[in-house]
Amino acid sequence: MSFSSDEVNFLVYRYLQESGFQHSAYTFGIESHISQSNINGALLIASDFILIVITSEDGTEQRIVESLSLIDAVMPDVVASRQQQNQQKPLLKNEPHDTNGDEGKANVLRFIRIYQLTYFIGTAAPNPGIESTMEVDGSIEIPANKATVLRGHESEVFICAWNPTTDLLASGSGDSTARIWDMSDNCPSPNQLVLRHCIQKGGTEVPSNKDVTSLDWNCDGTLLATGSYDGYARIWTTSGLLDRTLGQHKGPIFALKWNKRGNYILSAGVDKTTIIWDAGSGQCTQQFSFHSAPALDVDWQTNTSFASCSTDQCIHVCKLHVDKPIKSFQGHTNEVNAIKWDPQGNLLASCSDDMTLKIWSMKHDTCVHDLQAHSKEIYTIKWSPTGPGTLNPNMNLILASASFDSTVRLWDVERGACIHTLTKHTEPVYSVAFSPDGKFLASGSFDKCVHIWSTQSGQLVHSYKGTGGIFEVCWNSRGDKVGASASDGSVFVLDLRKL
């Protein structure tokens, strides 16, 4: 069985309706233009579609009774165990196989991801069945002439990141492309370079048709690294040329980071491993296989040591050329979504689906702080660029956390106390980012809003509502522009000068 994109959208819409998520169905129907499609709904059965998890190599459909998370769906061992529980013959291998060309699975995984996102919209929205509206003081609303909307992507735009030295904004999408947008003042209309992610098939290069899941600029802004659902990492020049292809993971890549020196790239994948790559040669320098489930995030502590987190609820700190973790942290009771070292590399923050935020130190075996204030999953965290050893040494170090409970919290980590709770968002918050001077925090939510807050007072100072749910927000190096990427394929840049 195969589905067109319109049919997939209709099935998601039907399933959400029948499951009682009326607000989610309404929101998804508007954004996917259900009313404009020519689908005969009577011929499609949503309840069957949710059961399709993966297509085996011989083309037969494998089904389970309950829906899977995105992580579960790309783990054949999980799928197989659930099939056994349902007294079905397990037809899947125990090792993750290459995802290249598996279009049936890609469609299913795309559905599962969309289902998860719209599910959280439904559970977090304050007014089910009614599209939420934001009431903002007109004096802080960013006018339309200060926003540049960038169109070109053909699917959700999950990530965006500013070049550290110039006003080039990179974005990565479900359309299997990354794009580099020139937002410099001397460019009258933004140019875009399209970085097409292709694979070898039948001796020729064809589009991978897989999501670009992560991207990161090197320290001097000369190279952009991308990670993809096709299992490959790639290095690109600022002119859009493919410089290196890094192929060692056996499945989707979820996170990817350059070290500060710019000689190594670190990646994390569904194959449960993390890899340090030599950026110059594109070769795998060392592969670490310490997690028992997919690795979700990585962050460098130094140029040769890093931390990784996983759905196995564990955090490992590893070092190049050392064959065992130099430290392991356990304490979370659900998957760990993100980890971040503070600017000096002394404290490690982690956030989890268990609704807690934990602070760890290499000097202790248990967490230094267990911060419990959010009422739903915490999706991401960021440290401020302030405190000792930073360009802003006279400001206190703080930590921001973004949650599916629609709030952002700012923490004084030294005291282990929440200093501000930012509550203007009405749906899950997927991204937060500090301005380079640490005075402001941008947040992006699936309520389509980007809010900019004072980190000192916790007050909302600027706000802008886009046309799709916000996946990512980021500041340029001067701190006068904010970029954002959205679920409707749009990318936009807010110019904060003279506001």
UniProtKB/TrEMBL annotation:
A GO cellular-component term linked to this record: histone deacetylase complex
Gene3D superfamilies with a match to the protein in the record: 1.20.960.30, YVTN repeat-like/Quinoprotein amine dehydrogenase (2.130.10.10)
Similarity comment text for this entry: Belongs to the WD repeat EBI family.
Protein's GO biological process: regulation of transcription by RNA polymerase II
This protein's UniProt keywords: Nucleus, Repeat, WD repeat
Gene Ontology terms for molecular function: transcription corepressor activity
Name used for this protein in its record: F-box-like/WD repeat-containing protein TBL1XR1
Compartment(s): Nucleus
InterPro entries, sorted: Ebi-like, LisH, Quinoprotein_ADH-like_sf, WD40/YVTN_repeat-like_dom_sf, WD40_PAC1, WD40_repeat_CS, WD40_repeat_dom_sf, WD40_rpt
Pfam families: LisH, WD40
